[in-house]
Amino acid sequence: MECRLVEEKIEAFVYDKTIRPDEEMIEHIAGCTACKTYLKSCQRAQKIIANLSRAEPVITFPQQLTNDIMALIDEPVLKTSHHQTRFLAVARKFLVAASVALFIVFSGEQYIFVDKLMKLEKNLTATPNNKQGAGVYKKMISYYPEKGLQMVKSELARQVPESKQMDFKSLIMMAGYSVLAGEELANQVKNQTSSKQNLSGEMIKHH
Amino acid sequence: MQNHINSIIQQAKEGNKSAFKNLVDHYQKYAFNLAFRVLYNEEDAKDVVQDSFIKIWINIKHFNSGMPFTTWMYKIVMNTAIDKQKSLKRFEWVKEDEILNLLTTIECDGPDCRLDNEQLGSVIKKIADELPEKQRLVFILRDLQDLESSVVEELLDLSETSVKANLYHARQVLRKKLESYGEQQRRR
Ligand SMILES: [Zn+2]
After folding, report:
1. Are A112 and A134 found together in one domain?
2. Chain B nearest-CA residue for A14
3. Chain A touched by B117 (CB under 8 Å)
4. pTM score > 0.80 for this model?
5. Would you call A203 an interface residue with chain B, using a CB distance cutoff of 8 Å?
């Protein structure tokens, strides 16, 4: 039997406890130093991997983790508050800015860009169902805005290949900041206008 | 037991929060184990568990009881963990010396051979992080999380042959890696 075939058999035998070694394999290994070494090497790797699998990580304060999850689910503040309405407006603008970031990253490969954007749009607007992803983001943004937006960012990042990650990350960060800055400016203008209106109202009254 | 779990899931689907809390209590450990093995550290894994259970709560109405709950949960946890990993910085080097010591500890079977979370995360990261993504995930799910091949096929949308091939290649890479560590250990 060829060594390559024996190696495959060794692999299967070492990792699958239900497989018994056959005569031919045992005979070959007895007379072949290379395969003997291979068997040892496989057995050692298997042992380390099995021990690693048994060594489970431990949650420090598991009860706290449960409580944190339940607290997030109970959070009532986000349902219809003013904060949420404003946040949704920011989120929408962020998405527009993010699509520009994607466009820049994929300039020259516009068909890729369109494909990514369509996928994202589908995920954001679809009705939630068993298929993972679809619709989750929309719900996450409306129930848990900060977490939801973080997820959209990650989803976008997932669409971008490794080589373009850095470009994309800086652009998406800029997109986030410019949206916030724009929002801040709009608010200031709104406040000024309304205080001016109040002022002129007052003046008319006094006149 | 399974009937009991099914009835808890049914109650959670109807919006019963205390039933959902029971689900969280029961399953968070499994979710955490998987998230930890993908992300290699406790804090990130806990974040993922939190986000995943929020997603589960939001979508449990649409959970189809024809599929095992754990498979559905693992799918959500795994995707959330992969997303999380994309947003984390990479390149945290673990010293070679330290890894050799940790591997010696892992290889022994005595009661003193326990690793804490940080050590465990370092070892998994060191041996698995350089695998191509598919191979890494198949390895984590099959060999570390000990899931059936059929579940892994469902979780990763892969065929049986593809799971087999990815696992084979991952184990080959790991074997060679561990072999070279073995040689370094002997030289010390
Ligand atoms: Zn041979």
Report:
1. no
2. B171
3. yes
4. no
5. no
Q: Is A133 in CB contact (< 8 Å) with chain B?
A: yes
* Inter-chain residue contact A57 with B171, CB threshold 8 Å: no
Reduce the DSSP state of residue A1 to 3 states and report it. Answer: coil
Q: What is the pLDDT of residues A74-100, one digit of tens each?
A: 765 444 455 556 666 666 677 777 777
State the complex-level ipTM: 0.89
Q: Which of A8, A132, A147, A172 to probe the B interface (max B CBs under 10 A)?
A: A132
Q: Are residues B179 and B107 in the same domain?
A: yes
| Domain identity same for B32 and B64 | yes
What range does the domain containing A189 cover?
126-206
Q: Which of B53, B59, B179, B149 is nearest to A134 (CA)?
A: B59
> Alpha-carbon distance A103 to A171, whole Å?
10
User: Can you give the residue range of the structural domain that contains B170?
Assistant: 96-187
For residue B107, give Cα distances in angstroms to A12, A43, B22, B67: 21, 11, 36, 37
DSSP secondary structure of A99-137: HHHHHHHTTT-HHHHHHHHHHHHHHHHSPP-SSSSTTHH
